[in-house]
Design the sequence.
């Protein structure tokens, strides 16, 4: 619990404060986010000044003139800080400022508590066996889930009683509704019956041809979660109850659940192989070992022996993850998470943040600016800086956009192609009233599984690798000073 | 010509035009890569990797047009 602890608190507070500020800015008015960020900044500066004063007063130089000068400076600084705080209080929402002010203290308390917990005998006993720890984590997650759903349920129940009250207050509309409901139901049943007689054969054929169905909007293949959501909604509709919360959750986070499923699948395979290592490998271990070796050679070949090993885990995992996500959509009743822009944007943003983080760590801020300015070394270079700077900055921002759109477009287009050909196969045989369609989509499934999925995963990872490469400090031992670095490194 | 008709005419045409450009680009990339492999067969792996990546760049342009089509096709009613 020394200065090092305070430095860690400061770092964590800055990062966590940034994340919270972004979240608040996304969900609430900008004034709240600004107030929170200002509060965190004020609190951190305040803590730093206090630390400075304490260090000066207790350090080895105490009592000297230099120490007094520094103390006077610190007090002047804290006066200015308090003036700034008063100014902020008049401009920004007070609650947000107070929350921001307490945030570093919260981080400090949490850090101290976790440090105390990690050293305790309780923690050692709990984490001794992975099964016990897993059960504990699952219990905690379940308890959080239960608490949150119950809280939501309570608020919704309140809302319902309110609506009931208003309905009872206006019995005329209530009676109207009950009158109108059976009519609408009969109409709906009639319409559905007519549609069923018309499309019964086609629907049966579609199911036989790979399990997809006509839906509103763009046609897509059915998947497990979508079916669960639909049946639950249908059941709730029949009983006249509101649709339960978990159905909304499932519907909203369908792709996230699929991507998590893929992540868990890969993790289970990797962990089981790593825990069960044998010198004569079984088939699974041979597969994983082959892949790891190839990935190592491939990425180290591009990034070089100095930086390669650091990025191999990230990039190799990225490739496997994207590949499995691409391919899993070809299994009937599954869904490719990468055919949704949210997942691809999330991955591209991860790569973007990691690339910029690496650039800042390896080059420093000035080195990064120098890189963004096109590394000017002569008069022509400096003259071109106003031109090169925006070009490089826009290029940096364009990278995640092109990465995510490329992956999304390819996988989504592939899915659409399969749907289109499956529909074509069904409609080609619809005159015969057979319970199946021509499997026209099968050759394209092979195309997708063998070419599109691995190539798109490779392209995503490869481009990420090259973005890392362009941001890393270039080695000068080849005699290429500042000419054609990108061409030199990109081969 | 109203908005929906203009979209209905322009969207497939847009993909087609983009595909022409991508096709020419892919052909040139494949041509160059095949010639390079023919001249230097031992560098096949490196050439293929570079070819696939540049091919993905060329292909992505059509994909952008395709995504635009899907974003705008909902407006044809």
Sequence:
């Amino acid at each position: 619990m020394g200065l090092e602890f305070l430095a860690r608190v400061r770092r964590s507070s800055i990062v966590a404060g940034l994340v919270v500020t972004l979240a608040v800015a996304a969900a609430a008015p900008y004034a709240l986010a600004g107030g929170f960020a200002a509060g965190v900044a004020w609190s951190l500066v305040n803590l730093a000044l206090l630390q400075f004063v304490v260090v000066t007063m207790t350090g080895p130089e105490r009592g000297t003139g230099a120490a007094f000068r520094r103390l006077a400076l610190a007090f002047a600084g804290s006066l200015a800080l308090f003036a700034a705080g008063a100014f902020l209080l008049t401009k920004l929402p007070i609650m947000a400022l107070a929350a921001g002010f307490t945030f570093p203290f919260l981080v400090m308390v949490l850090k101290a508590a976790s440090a105390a917990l990690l050293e305790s005998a309780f923690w050692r006993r709990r984490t001794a066996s992975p099964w016990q720890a897993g059960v504990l984590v699952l219990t905690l997650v379940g308890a959080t889930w239960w608490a949150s759903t119950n809280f939501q349920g309570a608020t919704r129940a309140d809302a319902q009683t309110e609506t009931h009250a208003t309905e009872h207050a206006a019995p005329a509309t209530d009676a109207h509704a009950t009158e109108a409901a059976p009519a609408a139901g009969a109409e709906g049943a009639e319409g559905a019956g007519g549609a069923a007689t018309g499309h019964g054969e086609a629907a049966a054929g579609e199911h036989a041809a790979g399990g997809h169905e006509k839906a509103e909007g763009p046609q897509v293949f059915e998947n497990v979660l979508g079916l669960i959501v639909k049946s639950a909604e249908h059941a709730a509709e029949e009983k006249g109850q509101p649709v339960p919360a978990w159905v909304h959750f499932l519907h909203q986070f369908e792709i996230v659940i699929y991507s998590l499923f893929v992540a868990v699948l890969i993790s289970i395979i990797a962990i089981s192989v790593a825990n069960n290592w044998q010198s004569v490998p079984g088939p699974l271990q041979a597969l994983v070992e082959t892949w790891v070796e190839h990935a190592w050679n491939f990425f180290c070949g591009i990034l070089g022996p100095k930086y390669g090993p650091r990025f191999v885990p990230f990039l190799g995992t990225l490739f496997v993850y994207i590949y499995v996500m691409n391919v899993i959509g070809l299994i009937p009743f599954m869904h490719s998470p990468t055919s949704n822009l949210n997942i691809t944007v999330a991955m591209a943003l991860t790569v973007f943040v990691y690339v910029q983080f690496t650039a800042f760590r390896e080059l420093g801020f000035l080195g990064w600016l120098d890189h963004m300015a096109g590394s000017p070394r002569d008069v022509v270079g400096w003259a071109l800086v106003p031109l090169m700077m925006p070009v490089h900055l826009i290029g940096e921002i364009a990278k995640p956009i092109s990465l995510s759109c490329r992956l999304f477009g390819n996988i989504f287009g592939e899915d659409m192609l399969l749907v289109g050909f499956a529909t074509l196969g069904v409609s080609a045989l619809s005159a015969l009233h057979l319970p199946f369609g021509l499997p026209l989509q099968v050759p394209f499934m092979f195309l997708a599984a063998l070419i599109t999925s691995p190539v798109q995963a490779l392209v995503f990872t490869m481009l990420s690798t090259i973005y890392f490469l362009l941001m890393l400090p270039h080695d000068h031992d080849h005699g290429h000073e500042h000419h054609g670095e990108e061409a030199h490194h990109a081969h | 010509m109203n908005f929906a008709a203009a979209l209905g005419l322009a969207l497939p045409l847009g993909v087609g035009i983009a595909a022409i450009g991508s096709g020419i680009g892919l052909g040139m990339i494949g041509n160059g890569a095949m010639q390079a492999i023919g001249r230097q067969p031992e560098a096949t792996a490196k050439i293929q990797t570079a070819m696939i990546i540049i091919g993905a760049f060329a292909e992505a342009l059509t994909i952008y047009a395709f995504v635009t089509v899907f974003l705008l096709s909902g407006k044809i009613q």
